[in-house]
Amino acid sequence: MKNFARSLIRNTLCAAIAASFCYAAPSRAQSASPVSAASPVFREVTDEAGRTVRVPQPVNRIVSLAPSLTETVYALGLQDRLVGDTDYCDYPPDAQRKTKVGGGISPSLEVIAALHPDLVLATKSFNRLETVHSLDNLGISSYATDPHTLEQIMASSKKLSDILGVPEAGASVAADMQRHLADLQKRLGALPPKRVLFVVWTQPLISVGKGTFIADALRHAGAVSIVDAEQDWPQVSLEEVARLQPDFLIFSAAHSDAVSPAVDALAALPGWNIVEAVSNRRIAVINEAVNRPAPRIVSAIEDLARQLHPDAFVEKPEGGKEKLQKENPPPNPQPAPPSSFSPGAAQAQMTVPGGCA
Question: What is the C-alpha to C-alpha distance for residues 331 and 58, in angstroms, rounded to an integer?
Answer without folding.
Answer: 32
